[in-house]
Amino acid sequence: MKYSRFTIALAASVAFAASAFAQTPAKPVTALVGGNVVAIDGGAPITNATVLIEGERIVQVGPAASVTVPAGARVVPMDGKWLAPGLMNMHVHFGLKLPGKNGNELINETDAEQALRMANNARLTLAAGVTTVRLTAEDHGIDFALKRAIAAGQAVGPRIESAGELIVPTGGHGFLEVDGAPEFSKAARTQIKRGASWIKIAISGGISDTHGSISAAPMTDDELSTLIEVAHRNGVKVTAHNGSTEAALQALKFGIDCFEHGYHLNDEVLKQMKAKGVWLVPTMVVSQPGAYEFYKKIGSPDWYLDRVASTGKDHWAMMQKAVKMGINVALGTDQFPYEPNDGTTATVAEAELYVKAGMTSLQALQAATIQPARMLGLDKDVGRIRAGQYADIVAMPADPTKNISALRGIGFVMKGGTIYRDDSDPARIDR
Prior knowledge:
The protein is of the alpha/beta class and 431 residues long. Helix content is 35%, strand content 21%. The longest helix is centred in the C-terminal third of the chain and has 24 residues. About 4% of the residues have low confidence.
């Protein structure tokens, strides 16, 4: 049988492609051995466990006797440490600027300077054990650029979900000021076009404002209902900076998904939140005594500290009620996740405050892992140490489901199968 030159060339190219495919390097395999996997859903932990990771994802988790470590795998001894899912922080501003000396120094910061500062804050956040964040107001699309840079391996940081710029009525608690339903609609669509997976609005004033009231409700029904409808039509959830009962009741009427802070929310608001499954991201650390270390460092003025103190009492009472009622709570800090607070990081201090407010240690850990994953709709990918999920893992000497303060001992951080911190053997760090 004779073959044309074309047929021969085609067969050769197919053979070459098949050979090249066969030679494609396999995904690296890592085995974390000898640690204990916390029972994030309750029940018994997996002691003397092996966590087998292929590439970015976990492929098998179980007792050492039931998991075979393949030849050639990188074996990382965990030596009795407790392994938990990477922590998640749902209220983060990598470009944070607050009233005071530090904030004044950043008034003329360029976008390029801010991008570099945000990248550094992202790196420090990941090193503190926070592997996923939700950014809740950044400037000029820098958050989306940073997210892409991290995903491409050009920068180091946690997984990012972002709300883009904070949308507010003129004079509100933020900088993207719009008025009337059409402008709110366009502002929401613009953020979604840029890559926002949430929309954030400010429906009341804030602690850092020099004008306006935290208890006010400045948005009209038409403005608020239109923005929420537009976001939901695009498959995007809406969260609101809010401390106002009046504004909360208005937002609940139109289907808001989440409240940030909730400083002065009353029983009626909390009851409706419980009934409708609305989320609360409390950011307790910003109004409680542990934050004064941070405020002193950034040179906060006296008027700001006075507002923090007066707001903190209602904020704490609200949180206790929210815990007792079983409101959906996802951890968020409104401080840099790694920032010192009460002798630990802001993220860990926030979880400890949840326990003081009435949660069990397990519930507080869930508020930092599986609950945010559920809120984000990412619970198939993050929040647990189980097959199929990203290998986002932190390790510490004790079980945080028994005592949440065990998180103060985090000394190992892995994100997507890459080791970013290992205090026991820094030579194992990949990046």
